[in-house]
Specification:
Pfam families: Zn_Ribbon_1. By secondary structure, the protein is α+β, with helices and mostly antiparallel strands. The chain has two domains: about 110 residues, no CATH class; about 35 residues. The longest helix has 20 residues. The chain is elongated.
Length: about 170
């Protein structure tokens, strides 16, 4: 199963962590891996490729395994679910709790991040001006990530590059 999301600017590392936590809360053994270390390009969103592997042992040592892969950019990414030897409980977890819950949370904006400055400025109408509470010096300043040093737009709660929570 594959689902592609567009139109939002999503914190993919946080989303991957949340999917892993969902498996753990359901009693599955689960781990998250970042599959590629992308090169950062100034002014461009980072490409992400995460894999969450979850495994649960059932009756007679029957093992159910689910692999969830999240890859793409914060504004356009896919969630791909692969499964092996899934029984009714695993199917219910994937269809209702995992996909249903994550889909609703993404649609509700739970993982949204502010758009990068150049994209948000391009979307502003020419006659519009920035809001009074955000002066030009503040707009130019931004928030520097303590983890990777990326300059994020003012008001960002998470780093657009690495997903670290900003203070």
């Amino acid at each position: 199963m594959q689902k592609t999301y567009t139109g939002r600017y999503v914190n993919i590392p946080l989303l991957a962590q949340e999917i892993n936590n969902l498996f753990l809360s359901e009693g599955w053994e689960s781990q998250t891996m970042q599959l590629s270390t992308p090169m950062m390009q100034p002014g461009m969103p980072q490409y992400y490729d995460y894999e969450i592997r979850a495994m649960k042992k059932g009756h007679l040592h029957h093992v159910e395994e689910v692999i969830v892969r999240i890859r793409g950019y914060p504004n356009e990414f896919s969630i791909i679910v692969e499964e092996e030897h899934i029984g009714p409980l695993g199917r219910d977890l994937i269809n209702h709790r995992l996909i249903g819950t994550i889909d609703k949370q993404i649609s509700d904006g739970m993982y949204d991040m502010p758009m990068p400055m150049q994209q948000s400025m391009q979307q502003m109408m020419p006659q519009q001006t920035p809001s009074p509470q955000m002066s030009m010096p503040q707009m130019q300043q931004g928030i520097k990530c303590p983890q990777c040093g990326y300059l994020n737009p003012p008001g960002a709660k998470f780093c657009l590059n690495c997903g670290t929570k900003l203070f």
